[in-house]
Specification:
By secondary structure, the chain is an alpha+beta fold. It folds into two domains: 74 residues, Glutaredoxin (3-Layer(aba) Sandwich), CATH 3.40.30; 108 residues, Glutathione S-transferase Yfyf (Class Pi), Chain A, domain 2 (Up-down Bundle). Helix content is 51%, strand content 7%. Strands 2-1-3-4 form a four-stranded mixed beta sheet. β1, α1 and β2 form a beta-alpha-beta unit. The structure holds glutathione. Glutathione (GSH) binds next to loops.
């Protein structure tokens, strides 16, 4: 199976970590593709050209959550909350929404300063701070090995983006329980190795 990705995509990062942690890292070929490039190999199978995209035979999956659920099925592990466990599904949705807002904010910050929408930045800041406060009051730094779940990886990926783009730069001081929780995940090699980097940053075409 092949995962089309970009190294700094938080959604692809979740899939890469999930694959490694479920023992499927070697079974997943990684193909770094450009975003918004008309010659992207993703477009013929997924017209919007978004990543992450998992292709396995004639199966094409284009949502991180679906990709992780598919990896769960292959590995026999569980990262994605099953329908039926509605509390877990609900928590997962909150974490994914948090990642979505952080991603929107980070994309805006990649635009030239004079083109950034003030109102979008204000809304993102307010929503992210509400999310941070909620997480800070609900997470607990794990005593042993941090559990690998899609829910947790959404937050790991979101905080990685915040750190990289210096969004709400006071978040570690202002939300110390969340910072301690995050530190525990940062000790995992697949998490540390997949953090966004300046080297992998590419201009985002309009
Ligand atoms: N809902 C998707 C979101 C994936 C997504 O937003 N991917 C971004 C990269 S992080 C993308 O492909 N963007 C294409 C573009 O900006 O044109 C998921 O959960 O996988």
């Amino acid at each position: 199976m092949k995962l089309y990705y970009t190294p700094n995509s938080p959604y692809a990062r979740i899939c890469r970590i999930a694959a490694i942690e479920s023992g499927l890292g070697d079974a997943m070929e990684l193909d770094w593709v450009g975003l918004r490039t008309p010659d992207s190999p993703v477009i013929p199978v997924s017209p919007l050209g978004r990543i992450p995209l998992l292709v396995d035979g004639d199966l094409v999956l284009s949502e991180a959550r679906h990709i992780c659920a598919y990896l769960d099925e292959k590995s026999g592990k569980r990262t994605v909350a099953p329908y039926g466990d509605w509390q877990a599904v609900s928590a997962e949705a909150q974490s994914l929404a948090f990642l979505d807002v952080v991603t929107v904010w980070s994309r805006e910050m990649r635009r030239p300063e004079e083109e950034r929408s003030r109102s979008l930045l204000e809304v993102a800041d307010i929503q992210v701070r509400r999310g941070l406060a909620h997480l800070n009051s609900t997470v607990k730094a794990p005593a042993g090995a941090p559990p690998i779940s899609f829910d947790a990886l959404c937050v790991v990926a979101a905080l990685g983006m915040m750190q990289f783009y210096a969004l709400a730069p006071d978040w570690r001081q202002s939300y110390p329980a969340l910072a301690a929780w995050s530190d525990a995940y940062d000790t995992i090699a697949s998490v540390a190795d997949s953090a966004p980097s300046q080297d992998a940053l590419r201009p985002l075409a309009p």
